[in-house]
Amino acid sequence: MAATAPCGSGAEETGSEAAAGKPGGTSFQRKGPRAGGLDRGGSRLVSIAGTRPSVRNGQLLVSTGLPALDQLLGGGLAVGTVLLIEEDKYDIYSPLLFKYFLAEGIISGHTLLVASAKEDPADILQELPAPLLDNHCKKEFDEDSCNDKTPESNIEMKIAWRYQLLPKMQAGPVSSSRFGHYYDVSKRIPQELIEASKWYGFFLPEKLSSSLPAEPCYLTHGYLKLLQFIQSIIYEDGFDGTNPQKKQKNILRIGIQNLGSPLWGDDICCTENCDNNHNLTKFLYVLRGLLRNSLSACIITVPSHLIQNKAVIARVANLSDTVVGLESFMGSEKETNPLYKDYHGLIHIRKIPRLNNLTGDISDVKDLAFKLKRKLFTIELELKKERKDFIMPSVTPSE
Amino acid sequence: MFPELNDLLNTTPDKVEQGKLTLLCDAQTDGSFLLHHFLSFYLRANCKVCFVALTQSFSHYSIVAQKLGVSLTTARERGQLVVLEGLKSSVDVFFRAQEEPHPLQFLRKASAGDLQPLYEFVQEALKPVDGEEAAWRCPVLLMDDLSVLLSLGVGAVAVLDLVHYCRATVCCKLKGNLVALVHDSGGAEDEESNTLLNGLSHQSHLILRVEGLATGFCRDVHGQLTILRRTLSQPTVQGERRLTYQYKIQDKNVSFFARGMSPAVL
Asked: Out of the domains of life, which is the source (chain A) (predicted)?
């Protein structure tokens, strides 16, 4: 239940309750001592690994896996919200952002829920990037640096020899107290980390094979099954606070890939005026309802360039909290534009949520480009060189 | 509520006009700050408010209202405020079939939905209770927002019918007010949205239209507000009045100024 300090006139109680107490509330929390001096559930909630409260309004944030993107989104992704990624044309870079998000979840010890109609979630998890550990992340940024091994100390331990028998590799979260880690996309995540983490997979062909729908339903079957699956996980694992006996609160990270594509059974990408082009929007609405009442954050990638009906794209964006669009230069005329030669594409922050506030965290920087280096995905301010023939991309007035 | 907006609209919580339909419309930007204004304004004016909150959770509105000096939870406990939380109820309706009709029952229908249960909910919430006739001033219905209904599969005509029924009950019969927020998609692409917007603009007494600046993003001026007031009762020469201001949203207030007169520029 979100609670704020009373501003003098309100007579609300001041303690910050954990989501278990109040059924109608969300999990937005404000950190810090209250005016009334009570801090019953707040400190416990803030101490979930891999989260931190926002400096602006005390909401709980999780990292998207890319510290640069976290900064552009105002510190991170708020718990209980949806991050929508509009895929680039050939779906090369959006899976990267998807994997960063999931990898961050594994490192922070969060529970994962991976849903896809194209790939088996187990395969997706195998391809996650490896984390760069603390003493290496500074060195790894240099492309020319050539070290990539932990200096194995084979020196025998003389005094604490019993500890030598313990396994050297940590099986648990590597550095769970940090917010935001760096990853090396050229390497795979160690198998031990995947095995140590808790994850649920939803692979559409498996889930649909059992029952073949005969009658038309109020929502596409794929979406309906996915919503039921998400709801059951949230309920059983206690992310919505219905089970206060759960010892340690945790975040559920949900990742849904290629939502809206024909593989999910939705035909908004195939025809312009299909009869029920509100399946995706209905799904998003109910999903957001589920998220608002639980400790979870969701990333969804949507092939919006395939959606024929432009009205649906606008509605989908309106129903999501944060919208980021990727535009890759591959195959477009921008590839040969000398202005863009250093970059692989543009990244557009289309929407930032206003949560518990009149304004949102809008960054001043609007022209952002991304580049996939050998090991790292970077987002940079697009340098404006002299632009004689350069046509400014249309900037939508933001809120 | 924002004192500057009250001045611009020439209202105060003490003298509240009755029987009016106010349309809040935003294009390419977020006009929800207007809704927060009207919510706190009518609660301060001691009106009975029915709030159909379809876009955000109750705690979001509650926290913002507290910044504006009004406590939604207290109002709810006193009976002054009735809230339909769209996000929370949609989950209930969607996963469990309800026995009695639920306002959001249309979520379970495959074809175009029926908004009658929603209308009955509003009617039930705002009908005058015998014991407390003199307690509240006039009933007010706030809807945030109607474009969500379009996204959920309801047709534009059904939404217009709902507004018509609500207007007949709230504005004409109960002499109250209706405030609705609609998104303008800003193009010819979304026909349903255009139908809804045109239909509502035609019947509204007051239209507050919010749009981003044509020149792009600016840190000091967040957008432009156009106030269109229609005086339907007295057909004078000056049938319509349109005023345009620019605004900047701050943490607890929104400041309005004439176009080009932003304090940052002067």
From this structure: Eukaryota
**What's the CA gap between A290 and B195, in Å, rounded?**
31
CA A44 – CA A61 distance, rounded (Å): 15
Spatial CB neighbours of A263, under 8 Å, sequence gap ≥ 6? A117, A118, A204
Beta bridge partners of A82: A298
Domains of chain B: 3-257 (3.40.50.300)
What is the three-state SS of A302-360? ECCCCCCCHHHHHHHHHHCCEEEEEEECCCCHHHHCHHHCCCCEEEEEEECCCCCCCCC
Q: Are A325 and A282 spatial neighbours (Cβ–Cβ below 8 Å)?
A: no
> In this complex, is the C-beta atom of B93 within 8 Å of any C-beta atom belonging to chain A?
no
A265: distance to nearest CA of chain B, Å? 15
Residue B242, both tokens: 């349109």
CA distance B256 to chain A (A): 15
What ipTM score was computed for the predicted complex, to two decimals? 0.92
Residues of B in contact with A310 (CB under 8 A): 187, 189-190
DSSP three-state, residue B104: coil
pLDDT digits over B56-90, tens only? 999 999 999 999 999 999 999 988 999 999 999 99
Q: Which has the minimum average pLDDT: A22-26, A66-70, B76-80?
A: A22-26
Across the interface, of A218, A358, A395, the residue whose CB is closest to B107 is A218
Specify the amino acid at residue A42.
G
Q: How far apart are CA A354 and CA A342, in angstroms?
A: 34
Angle between helices A310-319 and A279-292 (to 10 degrees): 10
Q: Give the C-alpha separation, A100 to B239, whole Å.
A: 58
pTM for the model:
0.82
Q: What is the rounded CA–CA span in Å between residue A295 and residue A18?
A: 11
CB contact under 8 A, A24 and B32: no
Tokens matching residue B199: 């239909």
Nearest Cα residue to A218 out of B148, B100, B84, B154: B154
**Residue A308: which of A260, A239, A258 has the closest Cα?**
A260
Spatial neighbors of B22 by CB under 8 A, at least 6 apart, are B38, B177, B178, B179, B180, B204, B205, B206, B207, B208
Which residues of chain A are within 8 Å of residue B69 when distances are taken between CB atoms? 7, 9
CA distance A305 to A87: 7
The secondary element (H helix, E strand) that includes residue A183 is strand A183-188
Euclidean distance between CA atoms A254 and A111, whole angstroms:
9
Cα of B100 to nearest chain A Cα, Å? 19
Q: Cβ contacts (< 8 Å) between B56 and chain A: which residues?
A: 355
pLDDT in tens, A269-319: 887 776 667 889 999 999 999 999 899 999 999 998 888 888 888 899 999
Which residues face A112 on adjacent strands? A199, A253
Q: How many CB atoms lie within 10 A of CB B157?
A: 13
Give per-residue pLDDT as tens, B181-201: 999 887 767 888 999 999 999
**Once rounded to an integer, what is the mean pLDDT over residues A178-183?**
84
Q: Which of B69, B87, B90 sits opposite A9 (nearest CB)?
A: B69
CA separation for the pair A105, A212 (Å, rounded): 34
Contact yes or no for B32 and A354 at CB 8 A: yes
Residue with tokens 């187990």: A122
Whether residue B91 and residue A310 make contact (CB cut-off 8 A), yes or no, is: no
